[in-house]
Amino acid sequence: MVLGALRRAVERVVEDLDAAVDRDPATDSKLEMALASPGLHAVWAHRVSHALWTRGGPLRLPARMLSQVTRAVTGVEIHPGARLGRRLFIDHGMGVVIGETAEVGDDVMMYHGVTLGGRSLAPVKRHPTVRDGVTIGTGARILGPIEIGRGATIGANAVVVRDVPEGALAVGVPAQVKVPDRVDPENLLYADPALWI
Fold first, then answer.
1. CB neighbourhood size of 34 (10 A)
2. Residue 60: predicted pLDDT
3. What does residue 102 show for φ and ψ, rounded to 5 degrees?
4. What does the alpha-carbon distance between residue 115 and residue 110 come to, in Å, rounded to a whole number?
5. Residue 184 burial by CB count (10 A; 0-12/13-18/19+): exposed, middle or buried?
6. Using the 8-state DSSP alphabet, how is residue 28 labeled?
7. Which pLDDT tens digit goes with each residue over 43-58?
8. Cα–Cα–Cα angle for 119, 91, 195, nearest 5°?
9. b or e along 54-82 (b: 16 or more beta carbons within 10 Å of the residue's beta carbon)?
10. Mean pLDDT of the chain
């Protein structure tokens, strides 16, 4: 049982490293990524804090303390209650905030300064749900219990307060949603200059 859990944890770490190296043109070394990626460190620490949090009771305080230490070390704040999918890569990391009821799917790419925040103080689902394959640009703020559809792209500094459909592009303040007939990833690089600011 312990060996199985350890094997799964190692497989997840290797999977994260492969995804990070694939998405970061600044390195091709898993060792460098493992040692020098605050985004990965934050995700790995979150897995531990989330496991403690979901067990509840007296383990919630250590979960919160671990998340705060991780924030101090990496600049990434992820509430231990947030649910993160596989192969999430947070590039650069600094200033990312992911709230308690946020849900992030698999293969999501997130840049620094992103906020997955709430718009309510009520103890309900108050943070976004981000589906698989979403890219979230630098400084984007996605607020409230909204859904970002699979494969959508959120532009840099966009403020998103409404659902974004699958495959769509959301840019601006407040975000305007563009739904292309066919999404060509190469063309997305040039779709709107605000995307990469």
1. 17
2. 96
3. -70, 150
4. 10
5. exposed
6. -
7. 999 999 999 999 999 9
8. 65
9. eeeeeebeebbebbeebbeebbbbbbbbb
10. 91
Q: How many CB atoms lie within 10 A of CB 144?
A: 17
Say what the pTM is.
0.88
What's the CATH code of the domain at 12? 2.160.10.10
**Count of domains forming the chain:** 1
Range of the domain at 146: 2-196
Name all contacts of 160-166 with Cβ < 8 Å and 24+ positions apart. 160/128, 161/119, 166/131
As given in the structure block, the two tokens for residue 32 are 């460098």
- Beta carbons of 178 and 164 less than 8 angstroms apart: no
Amino acid (1-letter code) at residue 156? A
User: Token digits for 101?
Assistant: 């009821």
Q: What is the pLDDT of residues 133-146, one digit of tens each?
A: 999 999 999 999 99
Given a contact cutoff of 8 angstroms between Cβ atoms, the answer to whether 79 and 99 are in contact is: yes
Query: Is residue 185 very low, low, confident or very high in pLDDT (cuts 50, 70, 90)?
Result: low
